[in-house]
Design brief:
The chain has helices at residues 44-47, 133-143, 160-163, 186-194, 233-244, 254-263, 303-312, 314-326; strands at 27-31, 37-40, 53-57, 59-61, 65-70, 73-82, 89-95, 105-107, 113-119, 125-129, 171-174, 198-205, 227-231, 249-252, 273-277, 292-296, 337-341. With 344 residues, it is of the alpha/beta class. Strands 2-1-17-16-14-3-12-13-15 form a nine-stranded mixed β-sheet. Strands 5-6-7-10-9-8 form a six-stranded antiparallel β-sheet, with helices on one face. It has a two-stranded parallel sheet with strand order 4-11.
Amino acid sequence: MRVDAFDFELPPERIANRPVEPRDAARMLHVPAAGMVDRMVADLPQLLRAGDVLVVNDTRVLPARLLGHRGVVPIELLLHRIVPGTDDRWLTFAKPAKRLKPGQEIVFEDGLCATVTAKTEEGLVEVAFNRRGTDLIAAFGKVGHMPLPPYIRRGDDAHDRTSYQTVFAARDGAVAAPTAGLHFTPALLAALDAAGVQRVTVTLHVGAGTFLPVKVDDTDQHIMHAEWGEIDAATAATINAARAKGGRVVAVGTTSLRVLESAAADDGSLAAFSSDTRLFITPGYRFKLVDVLMTNFHLPRSTLFMLISAFAGLERMQAAYRHAIETGYRFYSYGDACLLECTS
């Protein structure tokens, strides 16, 4: 499909720079099979059913923006993903990247250093740090900055260490938040439990590629960056049992949806999964497992807007976004939410 089919104009004042407090006080646009209704995130227990299973992403965001220098040249690294099978090597987006060569050293605060080991055809820079494992993760915590999306035009601060992290965060590895999960609070989770909604976790370590614009003219030409996903056997069994009893699978965020759809068999059954995924969902995709999607409002021409257009219909989502813009919904990572029901 033509990428410009997924374009729209968004006034800059609709971009949220801070989350609302409490988190579940955010607005939520409900888009069922017909029509749309203005709601609040706190209304979610009323919109789900006993026996539904809510699937959340338990990835934890690292302070993945590192500011250092090579000699006198400032260098910024944005971590993308750890190199599989290592505990000290990461693929990164570097600024500036053009003149970086294998063997060069980048120095950060607190004695942290990285040596350039390779450059990929995708424009990524592979580096090896001088620390490993938990020591390296601790070093990121000391010298790194929270990787706020580029459309949030301010530096990160102490509040973002908690604001840009979900209540489900447990497994270090993401360099961008699974933002639909940012809306949940202990009170909302208690209300969902009381409503008989089951809850399970999956993992998708969100990479920095989620921020990249689609630069090609046709979706068939776009290449997705790989991200690591995992679903354990107990989670798969719970989802299969819920579906067998008529419960719906409700994905919190496009990240949860992508790992579920990556793991699902053609008949909708689910098994344990632990692998990279490059799943790129555009209109025409047949969803195998997910029935309902809670997600934030996404960038124009983005892979995420393409995904939700596949899930709920391009015309429906264009109408929903027009309504959201006209009625003052807050967009993007710290913005409001929508609850979509699958039409494909």
